[in-house]
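Example (one chain per record):
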Amino acid sequence: MSVFNKSQNRLYYEVIIHYGQMNGKLDHPRAEQSWAKIHLHRYYSVVLGSMALLFDLIQHNEEDSRMTSMTRRTFMISTAALAAAGRAVSASDTINVAIIGCRNRGPQVAESMRTSGQFNLAAVCDCDDTMIKRALFDKKFLRDLKQEKDFRRILEMKDIDAVVLAVPDHWHALMTVMALAAGKHVYCEKPASYNIADGKAMVAAQEKHPNLVVQVGSQQRSGPHFQEAKAFLETGGLGKVAFCRACIIHEREPIAIIPDSEPPKSLDYAMWLGPAPYRPFNTNRVHYNWHFMRDTGTGEVGNWAAHWVDIVLWSLNLGFPASAMGLGGSYVVKDAKEWPDTQTVLFEYPEMTLLWEQRLWSTFGINGKGGCHCEFSGEKGSLIISRSGWTFFPRGTKENPEEHAGSEQEIAHVKNFAESIRGQAKPAAPIQEGHKTATLCHLANIACLLNRRIAFDGEKQMIEGDDEAIRLMARPYRAPWKLEDYS
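Predicted structure:
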């Protein structure tokens, strides 16, 4: 009697038939049943123990980084089988992880994972050889790991349990969905998505694979002092909260406007662009500066509101807003950035407003302080929180505020990811929550681009009554990449 259920049997049947067709074993329709009957049991062990045969079906094109339609179909059959029979991680197992994206956050998260003692760093990947070399120089513990330039090779590795996606925003959805299809747990840097449609696709993909974890890199949720402040708010420390403010106020270095040029030989530029529209290479539009380019990033709101608006939503258990009203633009710094240097956005909630403030040319913020933090104002007083701690200011007095120290967040967050993979905890920042926060970031950008109020139906997760704004919820993928091929 088969140990697999009907859907798994059908999946493996399709794999066997596809293999037979590609190798000329099936020359007429009635041959399928006998071929599958003979070989289905034989290949169960292959599916369970080694996916090498399945991945041999993938036809690599060494001349460029594009997938043919046959390659995509074969990838999906192969990775679906892997997901169905993926390695279960027990409480005592070390989790094998690969880092995709090596410039900045990838190596930082890798160091936290190494320090946590919960992970075995197995591979690194970046489509720019220079970024891999940089990571290996900065983080010597990465030097003995497997190195890949194409992230799809990482997804083919049957011994990899999880991947860290430290890549530009426009890649988040596609890589997450492909990784889930390949049976991998995912740690995806914030913001969760490049646009609202991508975020919805990521949620749907994770719910299709409920045994796989998608943790968003909103590490503040795992910091004990953030959790203490949340508990203070939930137990009525401020009474009724009617106003919140989150901000990023600092001096962001200008990006010089320079001519386009040929990409360096170290960079697979076609892979770097991936699903984004084609645009000639420019040194100042890649490697971190992508954050501020419309085609690849979501601006400073995606960079920092994804942290601080997230804390407001999480602390007060808020859902989607009824609307977003915003104004913004490049008012002070006239450089190569394509997203605003100044942004003011008001999110509408029942009997409460949430304000997002962004100024990339100042250091004078809330209470005369710059940096990034958020503020809660209620009938009993106010609370201001940052990564260095939180302070409660009782109503009616400016004397003797209650000070609370900060706490470590990075290692705590990756430990939570490991515990979630092992079934010992729930993710502190699951994709459902990351998508919600990212949606507010996208609504902020849309409101500022159009300079008007954007009504939003949270239940349907749709902009209402504004065709121009609705079109900004999604973007076509550049061929040959198709999100629907992997979801």
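Caption: Residues 110 and 414 are 9 Å apart (CA to CA).
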